[in-house]
Amino acid sequence: AHDCRFARNMPERLSISDFVVLTNEDLSSSGTSSFQSKMSDCRNTVSNVEESMEMDHTTLQRMKKMIKAIHTSGLSHVDNKEQYIEVLENLGNSHLTQDNNEVSTGFLNLAVFTREVTALFKNLVQNLNNIMAFPLENVLKTELRDTRLELKKNMEKSWKDYDVKIGKLEKERKEKTRQLGLIRTEGSDGGEDMERERRIFQLQMCEVGGLVPVKIANPRHLSHT
Fold first, then answer.
1. pTM of the full predicted structure?
2. Mind listing the GO molecular function terms for this protein (predicted)?
3. Helices 16-28 and 35-97 meet at what angle, rounded to 10?
4. Which of 5, 106, 161, 215 is the most exposed place for a label (fewest CB within 10 A)?
């Protein structure tokens, strides 16, 4: 029962398609759309995705560090192997001059085998570095992460501006209702009054998500007061 209650209280995560549908409905009819009631879900979705990306970022940084360590230790291993091969060849040549052909052949064959295996290992280590390290370097660029965090910060600011203004409007309406003794009519939730703030929030959501629908990007939709 506790798990069921917890699941019901968890914030809903919106998909991109859900967000686009809600935004289009709001653009078509701001007075009847349900976008306003889903704004907290939009914000929670961005926060959850950002948290997940931060975890991925930390994991990839650790992976990059491990690959660098493997590459460094691998090349060091190759250097030691090459010195080992040189010793084997010296021993083989030494026994060859002593007409000890059987022992000489053993050392020289072992040197050839070790050189071939070492070359394969060196190629493996270098390929790991080339295939993984360089792409990770691009993914983990500081400026990309900073840009993402800045976009999230802008989205949070637009959410806060919206929340503060709608709270102020609600307070003013309640005060006016109290003074005039009016009954609040259904639908007077600030939907139309807050259209400009919602457009800014929608634009920030699109920038965070990397998609900017033409309708939202159109400055005409931000010109309302």
1. 0.59
2. GTPase activator activity
3. 150
4. 5
